[in-house]
Amino acid sequence: MSNDDHLDAENKKQPNSLDTHAMKRNNLMEKRPGPTLFVIFNHTLTPAQEKDARESLGAAAIVLPPPGISRLWAEIPPAADSLADHLAPVTAWLGQEAGPEDYALIQGEFGATWLMVAEAFRLGLVPVYSTTRREAVEEHLPDGRVEIRHCFSHVRYRRYGA
């Protein structure tokens, strides 16, 4: 057998790194007790949001993005003509980690959110957003100014497109 034939035979025995990743991901998915909620969001989830994810979505796990992905999501460039290059690491992370039927909580800058929701649908994920109740609290200050604080409370998750 020539060296080339030997290498070809070895390559057929060894899956490439993408195949290996897909096999690992499929094995992890088979062992999961339920769907995972992947978070693409600029805020920390509240205890109410975590509880609702487990109860209403049946999320067995909640996965936050790595710090670099969170930073990219929080720093969407307002002057960019296109967000595709900026979001490429975010889409790569989601594509590598999430599997069909997993949830993706996606909220943020409008254009980036639209692109990531489309990507989530393409990947077979279930994109959702958190609906909130907003309450404004006014405080009249001694100097005549009025300070307004907005308090948001989670109500439920809603699927995009529903």
In short:
With 162 residues, the chain is α/β, with parallel strands linked by helices. The chain contains six helices and five strands, in the order ααβαβααβαββ.
Provide structural commentary:
- By secondary structure, the chain is α/β, with parallel strands linked by helices.
- It has two domains: 1-31, no CATH class; 33-159.
- Helix content is 44%, strand content 25%.
- The protein has six helices and five strands, in the order H-H-E-H-E-H-H-E-H-E-E.
- It has a five-stranded mixed β-sheet.
- Strand 3 (103-106), helix 6 (110-122) and strand 4 (126-140) form a beta-alpha-beta unit.
- It is globular and about 60 Å long.
- 18% of the residues are buried.
- The model is unreliable at 2-24 (pLDDT under 50).
What attributes characterize this protein structure?
alpha/beta, 2 domains, 162 residues, disordered N terminus
Low-confidence stretches: 2-24
Shape: globular
In N-to-C order, the SSE pattern is: HHEHEHHEHEE
Radius of gyration: 21 Å
> What is the averaged pLDDT score?
86
Output the strand order for the largest sheet. Answer: 2-1-3-4-5
State the share of residues found in helices, binned by percent: 40-55%
Domain tally: 2
